[in-house]
Amino acid sequence: MTTRRVSILGATGSVGKSTLDLIERDPERFEVVALTAASNVAALADAALRTNAKLAVISDPALLPELERRLIKSSCRAATGKEALSEAAAGDADWVMAAIVGCAGLEPVMAAIEAGRTVALANKESLVTAGALMTEAASRSGATILPVDSEHNAICQCLADNSLGDVSRLVLTASGGPFRTKSRDEMAAMTPEQAVAHPNWTMGAKISVDSATMMNKGLELIEAHHLFGLPSDRIEILVHPQSVIHSMVEYIDGSVLAQLGSPDMRIPIAHALAWPERMDTPAQRLDFAGIGSLTFESPDYERFPALRSARGALEAGGAAPIILNAANEVAVAAFLARKIGFLDIVRTVEDTVTRTNAVAPRSIAEVIDIDREARALANHLMREMAA
Ligand SMILES: NC(=O)c1ccc[n+]([C@@H]2O[C@H](COP(=O)([O-])OP(=O)(O)OC[C@H]3O[C@@H](n4cnc5c(N)ncnc54)[C@H](OP(=O)(O)O)[C@@H]3O)[C@@H](O)[C@H]2O)c1
Q1: In 3-state terms, what secondary structure has residue 201?
Q2: CA distances, 272 to each of 40, 122, 184, 187 (Å)
Q3: 105 Cβ partners below 8 Å, 6+ apart?
Q4: CA dist., res. 68 & res. 59, Å (int)
Q5: Reported pTM
Q6: From 249's CA, which of 69, 204, 231, 333 has a CA 20 to 30 Å away?
Q7: CA of 284 relative to ligand 1 center, distance in Å
Q8: At CA 240, angle to CA 238 and CA 243, rounded to 5?
Q9: Cα 50 to middle of ligand 1, angstroms
Q10: DSSP letter (8 states) at residue 49
Q11: What mean pLDDT do residues 76-86 have?
Q12: How does strand 167-174 pair with strand 144-147?
């Protein structure tokens, strides 16, 4: 077995830490090239020292001196800035975990793809906002994109070597989030603490709120379209509260293949980390008799209008998914800061998408421009809403 040289973008986050956990359990198999974080300097330095990383990148330049001080006795180089982040993404590693949250991940992901790396993609915003640009760049450079989102990773496993031409539909499963059974009136009063308390998964705050609004599933719908090339009407969303089946693929002969596992991100991360081989994980094994039954429900597009907005953005194409994603990011941040209510998140997204007109981007720079304008409009609309 050859040693895999890995870099982790967003090493201090939920996905980043799970990736480090797997690497540290099997140190012979991996060499850590670079680790990055936004501002969590203590956790970044600690991980770099534990894994003998060669490069540690902190996005906040004010924290570079502290990172240097923490790494002074090691051979790990401390750095900051866009170029350092691109170096972490496209430098010496052959496998890159893209686990920065939000649009901040776009440029480094593109750098890794253009450099032809194997990119384990957790940063779903990359495909949601720049899916066509990223997949075209991957075809040109020969980069492999391995989905880390549990649903897309499940589909990737169910597809295996089958031809996409033999697929009739994809079924994306959704837990339904913490408010699955709540009425709109009950949701109106929900706090950030209640929204981030996901029934099955432990995740970062932003994606947890997205699960509560079900915007997460909407973003995943757009992500699935770009990863697997199927149109909106052949990607179904199905609520499955136990989160045991992570998604399914139906073939033209009527066969349905599903991937099952406990709700532990280390399973899809391990699939991408060891790909095309397999590796051990400490994830809990499924106790089928203990689970007893698996249930399914159709999603409720009235109580969870984020699903309708996301499907609409996918079908509209062009810049619509960028605007949807940008407005959602700022609205979720405002909700977490207690500036707007839970239902105002999707209201802000819908208003922003309706009021923006932008053409399809031709470059990541244009994606970032559209994103910036949509954020400004969403912030303006939230201020109007509060007035
Ligand atoms: N968590 C999950 O189970 C899960 C599942 C599927 C997909 N995903 C996707 O994976 C991505 C990461 O999610 P997460 O839950 O791991 O997020 P998270 O816990 O919030 O971690 C985000 C990571 O990105 C870094 N970061 C944040 N803003 C940055 C910026 N402006 N520039 C550079 N680095 C920045 C953070 O550094 P600091 O720690 O210094 O802030 C941290 O290392 C997201 O796109 C999410 O949708 C997550």
Answers
A1: coil
A2: 25, 10, 38, 36
A3: 9, 10, 98, 99, 123, 125, 126
A4: 13
A5: 0.95
A6: 204
A7: 24
A8: 125
A9: 20
A10: H
A11: 97
A12: unpaired
